[in-house]
Each structure stands twice: as structure tokens, then as C-alpha cells.
Please model this.
Amino acid sequence: MPAWLPRAMVMALALYGCFHLGSWAFYQLIGLLTNILIAFFLALAIEPAVSRMAGHGLRRGLATFLVFLAVLIAGVGFVVLLGSMLAGQIVDMVEEFPKYLDSVINWVNQTFHTELSRVEVQDSLLHSDWLQRYVQNSATGVLDVSTTVLGGLFRLLMIFLFSFYFAADGPRLRRALCSVLPPARQAEVLRAWEIAVDKTGGYIYSRGLMALISGVAHYVLLVALGVPYAPALAVWVGLVSQFIPTIGTYLAGALPMLIAFTVNPWYALWVLGFVVVYQQFENYVLQPKLTSKTVDIHPAVAFGSVVAGTALMGAVGALIAIPAVATLQAFLGAYVKRYDVTDDPRVHGGHRWRRGEPVVSRLRRAVRGGGDDADRADGDS
Model:
């Protein structure tokens, strides 16, 4: 046996063990790493506001606290307003449930010539086996729901804590990172950090402005139709439609449609038509004007980044995909060398036809992929 073989075997086994240990540690800490990534992007989003307040003489920690306090008050107010709306609507639906049931039973009796009664239907539902099983499963699942809620609150607290430290100690964090890098690399890291702050902050602020416009437009529609809880529904539509990419508008429009359906079924169709029309107006008119100077990313690239982010990290990936791709695109654009484009009609989607050339010859030359142009170039040379 060669003398180096035992050492090589031990080294291979050690590397194999380290690889498995690192994989195990990564999968155990993937939740923590995801929370840190969310906190980092949240800190980047509030960085412009904190820096502006700190520039006016306010301490950075206090400025970060005030920004988070404003976000917390807005979030709690929205949840309380939406919760009160849903609670009131559920109470109204429960009170009107006997009338709905009577109308359904009358329709069934008239259509199928049956003799059903509400008392019989209620007794059959209350004494059914599936309802008893559902109640038992719900009773056993209360503990699981409570655990999920507590875990979500702990995760939210962790994200806010990390993002607070990232935003409050941003300059110190940048100095610590640059202290372990050579001067040339320090400039690149600071440039990437600045681009990330600009793109993430611009994305959040442009989405907030579009959420305000969307909320006002839907509020006007709901008030005109006489739909209850119009302010809460408008806030719901504005936030969900903008901060859940691609399908957010249609997902946000489902709740106003449901509330409008309880008032008049035709109102639900009006809300659906308005949601579809406003989505097209937002995609082709409003969004390009508002995001051209902040994010500046092609709609196809944005859609692909959302799909990729969802596949990699779920809902979190969908939220941070667009600012991450915009940051990467802007950073690469600063280092990729670009050249002037030749003045050729084919660049603009056209072809160089010869005057007086028959249509058949043009089509034949187009099929051959411009072979005549290459032959003519060879002849000229």
C-alpha cells in the first residue's frame, strides 16, 4: 500500500463527513436564513427614510424606531379594520342564513317538484355524521392552529428585530464588511449596496403609490355601487394587488366581489369587470410610468423572476424576486460594456428589399436567410 493512500482515504472520509454535516446544518438553518434575507430586504426598503431622518440630526436608532412604529401602527390598523369588517359581515350572513336557505329550498321545490322544508334540512345537517367528524377534527386541530399562530408571531418578531439592527447599524455593518476586503473590492461592495437600496426602496415606494391609486379607484366604485365597508375593501385591494405580484389584483378583487354579491349579484359582475379593466390600465399605462425610474425591469423578466422566486422560496421569493433581479440587472449593467447598434432595418424588425424585386424573389431570399446578401458581400470583396 502506498504511504499516501491512508492519508488520502482519511481526507476523503473527512471531506465527505464535512459535506454531510454542512448539508444537515443548512437544512436545519434554512428557516433562519430565509428570515434574515427578508429582514435584509426590509431594511433596504426603509434605508432611504432612515437616512433622510438621520441627515436632519436625528439619531439613527431613533429614526429606525419611528419608521417601524409607523409601519406597525399602519399594519395593526389595517388588520383591525379588516377584522371588524369581516366579523360584521359574518354576523350579517349568519343572521340572513335562514332567508338564504328558504330561498334555496323554494327554488329546489319548484324546480324538482320536491317537498323539502327548512326544519328537515336543518335536522339532517345537525345530525349528520360528516358534521360530527368535522367538529371533532376541528377540536383536535385547535392546538395545531394555536401553535402555527404563535410560530408565525415569533417569526415576525424575529424578522423585525433583524431588520431593525440592519437598518439602525447600516453604516457600522458596511464598515465591518469593508474592513475585511481590499480597497478595490470595497468600492464594488459599496456600489452594490447603494444600487440595492435604490432599487428596493424605489420598488416599495412605487408599489405604495400604485396601491394608493388602486385603493382610491376601487373605493369610488364601491361607494357608487353602495357596497358596505368600502374603505376597508379599498385598502385591502390596494395592498394585496400591489404586494402580491402577478395574481394580486385578481386575488384582491375576490373579497369585494363576495361582499358585493351579498348586496346584489349584478354588482359582483360590475366589480369583476372593473378589476379586469383596471388591471390592463395599470399594466400598460400606470406601472411603466411609475416604475421606469425606480425599478426599470422588463415585464417578461419581472414575471419570470416571480415564477423563479416562487419555485425557490415560495411566497417570500415572489415578494423579493423583482427588487433582487432589478438590483442584479443594474449592477451588471454598470460593468457590461455596450456598443453602438448598426443602422440596419433588420434591427427594427424590417428587411432590406431591393427596389423592383419581385415578391417571389423576396420571399425566396427571406427563406434562405439572407443568402443573397452574403453572396453580394462576397462579390464586392
Summary: The first helix runs from residue 4 to 55. Confidence is low (pLDDT under 50) at residues 370-381.
